[in-house]
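Input record (one chain):
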Amino acid sequence: MFAMTKSDLEAAAALVHRHMAPTPQYSWPLLNESTGCETWVKHENHGPTGAFKVRGGITFMDWLVRTHPEYKGICTATRGNHGQSQARAATALGLRALVYAPRGNSVEKNAAMQAFGAELVEFGDDFDEAKVEAFRVAEEQGLFIVPPFHDELVRGVATYAFELFSEAPDLDVVYVPIGCGSGICGTILARDALGLKTEVVGVVSDQAQTAKLSVEAGRLVETNSARTFADGMAVRVPVQEAYDIYSKGAARFLAVSDDEVADAMRLYYTATHNMSEGAGAAPLAGLMQERDAMSGKKVGVILCGGNVDTGWFKTVLEGGTPTV
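The corresponding structure, as predicted from the sequence alone:
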């Protein structure tokens, strides 16, 4: 199983920080009043693509050009943030970036991916169908497939946890959203490398529970659908390599509803004036579920991204919950 040392984290952070500044972690007084605990927000929404995935793009492309210089381009599937990251990093190195997203994907995330240089193709009804097609086309066209989970992606993503734990090493608990699992795995690996006792809690959508169901069953469990406006967590098919890490390293798993996610998005905005996308607000929704148990503790929440479409955010601010 993939593991990291403190030296690995330091080397990954040095690479990542050549291409982006560290993101801040703040404890907001109004947010603390609502959560009932000292809450530290890791602001991955402040990165150069507005989401944590940018870190994995940096480390993956650095590895790719060193180890597979014969490839002239990459192909991948995404709901948006991973695609922005890969397009940004690939095109900076002169590589082609072919990106697949499901039909009906976020209009604004699609536009951002194209602005970062992606050749965008919409295919399939959800992320997992788009992923199958991306793998097929990569083989057909001789492009390097970037899977949703890979050691080199996790190596980059783990640097946000390294930054957070370096600034707040005495966190009792940290809540992390789960899609395919790179974020929670990077957090677990960083915690373990630093020898910390912080509990890591995985948060899934109650409409996309594949990670939680898999851990409960002790084996990979696919779901029939993943219909949630928290698109960063809208995954039906779990990843074995990620499961191997989070099933052992996470303290527990919570499922949050779209209504709870919308409540958390509103709370972020009113208490901190930060926008969060659905997956970005899910950790705060998880904390609010466990508010009583967390009373008086020091808690981290990963605001993994702020890339929410204007229409959805308008619905949220008006007190509603977007539907898909």
